[in-house]
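Page 37, top half.
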Amino acid sequence: MPLIDGDQVVKLGLGHEDQAQLTTLYTERAVQFIERNKDRPFLFYLAHSMPHVPLYVSSKFKGKSGHGLYGDVLMEIDWSVGEVLKALKRCGIDRETLVIFTSDNGPWLSYGNHAGSAGPLREGKGTSWEGGTRVPCILRWPGSIPAGTSSGEMLMTIDLFPTLAKLVGAKLPGHRIDGLNAWPLFSGQKGAKNPHEGYYWYYENNQLQAVSSGDGRWKLHLPHAYRTLGGRPGGSGGIPAKYEKRNVERAQLFDLNADVGETTDVAERHPDIVRRLLDLAEKARADLGDALTHRQGKGIREPGKVKEASQTQ
């Protein structure tokens, strides 16, 4: 795994000691960036490698959490967030800066004690169940977002870009994007509602595996195969346990407001909701296609690409 700075490869291979310093290195670069740009608007995206396996932690936190290596890693990430917030305050811009803390997916359960827990949620990373897709999101902007409040409203990370663009008065690109401005929800405006009709769970090779109502209450899992530990424990010490395959044989509906663990299929009780979500699934297939039903979408967009990084030593 190379270490890249801008478009330059500064180190081709990272040893164990290098990886143990990644969280610290990222944090130092974040603080330096804030200090250099404190007098002008900026967007800074800090994406930690941890706690993705393999886990590494610096000597500052090794063995300090009392909860094993995974706990040590999270303790160091917590320290990193604190350093970023302190830098914003030290530079006098903490009240002018929106800070968003979130994650990309749920725990990689096959790694057991190196993976964390999905709590009451079903399954984990690599699935369209809530344990794989529902993640925490913490927003901080003194004076603009009410402190000490919480919300159970549905959002996806696709909504961050158009929301931030709206806040800074930037124009959205001319081509279609999937996200929508969700600032009324972010800021806790009275009566604010999710702007989407529905959300879609695509996984594997363009498989439409689930669809939900925009408010996040109703979620319909479509027929597909998924991986599971089947109730068995995950691995330990960085060695994963093996998954097994299971199938959703027919569309299953879950009321996430009452059953966040997706334990009880209520499709027969709510045929109208099933029909509405199946109609949304058809809209998605017509637009983006669906490998599970062998559909070719008319709105498929080419992914963005970057030039291959040059190598320096």
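Page 37, bottom half:
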Amino acid sequence: MALPEPPPLGASALPAGTFDGETVVVTGGGTGLGRAIALEFARLGAHIAILSRGDEHRAAGVSAVEALGGRAVGVSCDIRDPERVAAAFDEVEAAFARPSVLVNNAAGNFPVPAEDLSPNGWRTVVDIVLNGTFHCAREFGRRHIAAGTPGSIVNIGASYAWTGGPGFAHSSAAKAGVKNLTETLAVEWGTYGIRVNGLVPGLFPHADETEDIRGVPGRGDDDEEQSAPAGRTGRARELGWAATFLASPFASYVTGHTLVVDGANWQRRAMRMPAFTPIRDQLGKPPFEG
């Protein structure tokens, strides 16, 4: 038996119009879980700004929002570049208004044993995941602090920020930094009316997963069974509902918190740990030769 299925696509966890007239920025919001989050904000009346480097990704996100009858704009942005981030926020304000919500969703990741990870690979992932999150949060925060207006930030994290992530040393270290940044900014910026929370997805299969991730041996073979104790994987809309709640007035006293939406997947599930398989073996890599 599995956890019950959620309400159908199109249902909302919050009252209609919760974000009417507000502007929501979603980095990496043109594909995958980022797009699912953007769509749930759009259903609740928000204008959506999708920040992404990819033309096709931005267009796909804008098209999906408009198909719901919402308004959206795609803005080219490399979040690793703080000057480009500032320019992107200028474009968003010119198109709509100062964003009241920022969802830091953009990320980079690929599986690799740490001994095979190049300095450039490490730097690229950390630069996108941790530095990019900071650049966007800083730009958002500075604008609201200067204007004296409240705001809400939702940083997308990962459960291996707590546990470590064998095969993902770069991403897990960066996500641990994002979790700490979330908690630090919540304390610093609470006095300005800015809330900062984290949102951690579990196993949410979607068509936009990268080839690197889909190529992990065994990936997708038995996802429903592997998501025990929930007995099923997540549905993208469930993450969208969680994001809209954290950013909404109904969570006005929630800040510095990281909400995990994963059906208890990351919790220890046995009295004894399973037999350990080295990461190189899990990834089908030959012995390291230096």
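Margin note: The beta strands are 23-27, 47-52, 72-76, 101-104, 151-156, 194-201, 258-261.
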